[in-house]
Design a protein that fits this description.
The protein has about 110 residues and is α/β, with parallel strands linked by helices. The protein has one domain: Roll (Ubiquitin-like (UB roll)). Strand 4 and strand 5 form a beta hairpin. About 25% of the residues are buried.
Length: about 110
């Protein structure tokens, strides 16, 4: 379900591959950058740390951001506190959408 579902949603062309070619049990997750209103597909292993996915997605979506610690990752609206945890242990599934957003809320003018 993962790749077909994620591929049916609006994302940039191509994918970021963190899982090696031919790896067994790969997942495709969607990572959305809240500030840039854009998303990428990331091919991962269930054991991939959340932080690795965040770094790869931010490099593609927000290349001008240096301080990635100023951004949080949310899954189903809840912040993933331990970004060193694997996607699987954080509760993600094949086809999940992760939201990367600024840690501090910005005022709306």
């Amino acid at each position: 379900m993962g790749e077909r579902f994620v591929s049916s949603l609006r994302t940039r062309d191509g994918e970021i591959r963190l899982a090696g070619e031919g790896a067994a049990s790969v997942w495709t997750v969607r990572v959305q950058g809240a500030e840039v209103w854009d998303a990428v597909r990331v091919v991962v292993l269930p054991q991939t740390p959340v932080r690795d996915v965040k770094q790869a997605a931010m490099a593609e979506l927000m290349p001008d951001v240096d301080a990635i610690d100023g951004y949080v990752v949310k899954l189903r609206g809840i912040e993933i506190i331990n970004e060193n945890a694997s996607l699987e242990s954080a509760g993600a599934l094949d086809g999940s959408t992760l939201l990367v957003m600024s840690r501090r809320r910005r005022p709306v003018h």
